[in-house]
Amino acid sequence: SDWSEDSWSDYGSRGKVGTALGRTVPGGNVLFPDIFHTDHLFFYERFRTYQDYILADCKASEVKQFIAEYLEKVLEPSGWQAIWRTDVFDVVVGVVDVDYSSLKAVVELSEPFLCESQDSSFTLECMQELLELKEYQILLQELWVVYDESGEFDQTALAIEHVRFFYRCIWRTWDEEEEDDFDYFVRCVEPRLRLHYDILEHRVPSGLVADYQSLLSQCEELYEKFLNVRNSISTSDSDSEVENVSMVEGLKLYEKVEHLKQKLKLIENPLLRYVFGYQKYGSLQAKGQRTMGAKVTHVVSLTMMTSLLRLLMRDKLCPESCEDVEIQFHSDPLAAVNACYEGDTVIICPGHYVVDGVFCIADSIELEGYGLPDDIVIEKQGKGDNFFDCTGANVRISGLKLVQHDAVEGILNVHHGKTTLENCVLQCETTGITVRMSAELLMRNSDLYGAKGAGVEIYPGSICTLLQNGIHHCKEGILIKNFLDEDYDAPKITMVNNVIHNNEGYGVVLVRPVMPSEVKDATAQTTKGENIKTKENEFHEFLVLGLFCMTVVTFPLFPALGNTQPTQSGDVTACGEGSGQEQQPECGTDELELYERAETAGQSEGNCEMANGLGATSAKKSKRHKKRLSELGITEADDNLMSQDMFISVEGNQFKWNGKGSFGTFVF
């Protein structure tokens, strides 16, 4: 690399007049001098420095050597002051030399003596004795450079910050034993650096962050034990029974460390961390019933007035059975849900509630708003967490408006059991509702919008019933995950009288793998000639990209209207949805009547196309399953075993102004 002064003109302050860094006033009771403010660096600043200037393509065993070479080129060897910080004391020292190979500075106490400690035992004499024991050498990452306006020590302060951050947040004690066949920066530094900033910017669920920190602590503790056992074996020359026992113990510790390291790598990988994280929420433990089987009604209100209490007593708190019911009052809906046991009810009064946490509902409880949904708003604060995670056998949520901002995960996840959502408004951020395998969702009379992914994601083996809902202004309306694989059961889907409109992609999308026969057909068409023009009514367009094939299936809703131009699914004529409202007045009366009739017919056809598309895929799954049984020598099977078709009830749904049409299939 070119380490000339010109190549560093944009890094630090070399060649500039005055400092380019800010200053920070240290806290505490002692008047310490100000220090450089360097812990605010952006991701790309650290990334660029580690990749281009410090580590480059070094191996794990070369890290310390590369850091020493970097420091030797940018660090001022003497003439600057710093605050030496430990867990016990802070003291001002002057740097007289730097030992680059050991990453240490040779220091002396500054005058006047400035020291702050947890007790008064660290006097000038004590500090002198301590420095003598350390041979006056201090680790560079324990030094915070004293602020200097000249700019002469900017690079020194930044370099020490990069070293300090590296050993605090990136380096692991076991990294030196990593295989040298891999680029250390690519394998370890980049994913850990990205994870650090994702956590800072609240892009990772708090539960997953806690898991990562716990795993890291466990791994460090076990690795230290492993090193102690290994060292005790290596220093012993005897072949005694004690040594054999130590070897067995060392192997067990090594296996545990490797297992924890793999878990850490899963979370550090941005593509895999959420797969790992979802497992936690899928195994939430239910509390069950109270000891005496009593049920409690939880009332949530920001302020409780006598008039509101009278209305609650009249409408909600006096059951017809006239039995005494225990009532608990809360000001936070999350606290109320956390206090629930099996069979409890949470009544949320009008108000705008801001929560910081996840609603983890593992028991069969009911959350209901007392009033209109727009008057009962629960807003999620924080970027990383899920909003609602449901695993209860029978969870019911009604009459609420849920608002999500700057989120990473969906607004509601149904992992197990049945969740009923009724008369709710869901303002999403990423994915909307996810119905996972073996889970059931009943969504009725609700409005969902704003998802940057799909409004509703339906996984194989789930049950999803959507009745009279609005799903709009999402990336996709409804996304049905691959159920063609033999290991998965087809989902059971019921969609009646829903309005799915103004979504960027399709109203409903089916995602499934490509069939071998489809690949053969695509290959045959390619062999015939690449210049043959694709026909207007052809259903499959195969895009072979690397190792996979993607098919986009679009169903034109109105092929009979005589439009000679290729029509997008969902478009009617020049007066249709795709051409915008401003063109409609140009049509004559007869054309408008034709448009109205076509729109009504189109909605019916959209339901049929969706049912046919899903049914055709289900039939393919059934055919593959029968073929598999035949290969195994099973010629007769029970009807229940052979009945793999999807249960579909699609009726009365309206698909309007969706960017790519009503229904599409993505084949990968």
UniProtKB/TrEMBL annotation:
Which segments carry the region annotation Disordered?
A: 568-587, 600-627
Q: What does this protein do?
A: May play a role in signaling pathways governing cellular proliferation, cell growth and differentiation. May be a component of a novel signaling pathway downstream of Shc. Acts as a positive regulator of FGF signaling in neural progenitor cells.
GO BP annotations listed: fibroblast growth factor receptor signaling pathway
UniProt protein name = SHC SH2 domain-binding protein 1
Task: List the Pfam families hit by this protein, alphabetically.
Answer: Beta_helix, SHCBP_N
Task: State the SMART domains in the record.
Answer: PbH1
- Source species, please? Campylorhamphus procurvoides
Q: Where is the SHC SH2 domain?
A: 45-273
- Cell compartment(s), UniProt: Cytoplasm, Cytoskeleton, Spindle; Midbody
Coiled-coil ranges (or none): none
The Right handed beta helix domain is annotated at: 410-510
One Gene Ontology cellular component annotation held by this UniProt entry: spindle
Keyword annotations: Acetylation, Cytoplasm, Cytoskeleton, Phosphoprotein, Repeat
Gene designation: Shcbp1
